[in-house]
Amino acid sequence: MAETRAAEWVRPAIRALSAYRVADASGLVKLDAMENPWPWPAELREGWQEALAAEPVNRYPDPAAGEVADRLRRVFGVPEAADLLLGNGSDEILQILIHAVAERGRTVVAPEPGFAMYRLLAEAAGMEFVGVPLGEDFRLDREALIAAIAEHEPALVFLAWPNNPTGNLFEPEAVEAALTAAPGLVVVDEAYHAFARESFLPRVVDHPDLIVLRTLSKAGLAGLRLGFAAGHPEWLAELDKIRLPYNINRLTQATARFALDHWDAFEVQAAAIRDERERLYAALVERPGLAVWPSAANFLLFRAPEGQGRALFEGIRERGVLIKDLSGAGGALADCLRVTVGTPKENAAFLEALDGSLRGMS
């Protein structure tokens, strides 16, 4: 194939990046992506399929997804004074947020280790990204965060709550301190709210430069790609200017309307995942040689014996279970692996694979 001029025309900031990779899970128990492991309840499927069949897919969808937004307000208790922006997954909203404020010389600040897309999207937009190292046991270092905000005067501060990949909820007082100190926008990313049960959403009315981000992915609708941001109407009006038209397709809107009308069923599944999380945590704590951290999300972070993180990951995969290998990141994540909480059967398969791998390494 002939050579292209990509190297000449693609911005250096883009060429320096590595694409976000998703591992192939074919034939494996998939516990690497923080998905709800249970399918839709059987009693909902017929009604859902009827709702989809009734959609006139030859027509463009509602550009504002108004009926979905109304249901999101009702189900999640969005304050009346706040506006909503819907995205094709919360990742699209992250991209919108960064592009809205991106200018050369501006900065994005977030704790690290954290969600990889914060850095990737900021650097892709030509902004500087400043990662603030977490403290012992992945606690938010409040003093370091406030110092970074004072030094860099960031346009955006991202705080994942609970944090990914560590699973912990930062102290609310530290988040409040960041809200007070930040000269720009603070985004509290509550992707795992279904499992944490705590939220900054009610506080958007008190903090005009706070946006709370949510997704339906973790609660059982990962295939939909639907997220939303809640915040001050002035901020949301600016963000809406660069939202692509018709970004929430008809089938996603129909599915979301139906799911939100039956949200109790997904709350039951989330409760089951929280119960399984505690059982899985207790089981991991019993394994000698592992360090395990409590989690408010639907996954658990644990550390393999020193220098054996990659080998342990490979051993688990060879035994039919795919989890997430974070050991290559080094630093605070050296030898760390992350496992999504699955069904009881999937969790048992993971523990069996883990035990076999540990025996094989001894």
CATH topology of the largest domain: Aspartate Aminotransferase, domain 2
| DSSP strand tally | 13
- Tell me the CATH architecture of the largest domain: 3-Layer(aba) Sandwich
Low-confidence stretches: none
Amino- and carboxy-terminal Cα gap: 49 Å
Order of helices and strands: HHEHHEHEHEHEHEHEHEHHHEEHEEEH
Oligomer: single chain
How many separate domains make up the residues?
A: 2
Count, helices = 15
Describe the structure.
By secondary structure, the protein is an alpha/beta fold. It folds into two domains: 6-41 and 265-361, Aspartate Aminotransferase, domain 1; 55-262, 3-Layer(aba) Sandwich (Aspartate Aminotransferase, domain 2). The chain is 42% helix and 15% strand. It has helices at residues 6-9, 12-15, 42-53, 66-76, 90-101, 116-124, 142-152, 172-181, 193-196, 217-221, 233-240, 250-261, 263-285, 309-318, 344-361, and strands at residues 29-30, 83-87, 107-112, 128-133, 156-160, 185-189, 210-215, 227-231, 291-292, 299-303, 321-322, 324-325, 336-340. A seven-stranded mixed β-sheet has the order 2-8-7-6-5-3-4, sandwiched between helices. Helix 4 (66-76) packs parallel to helix 12, helix 5 (90-101) runs parallel beside helix 6 and helix 7 packs parallel to helix 8 (172-181). The longest helix is centred in the last third of the chain and has 23 residues, at 263-285. It is globular, with a radius of gyration of 21 Å.
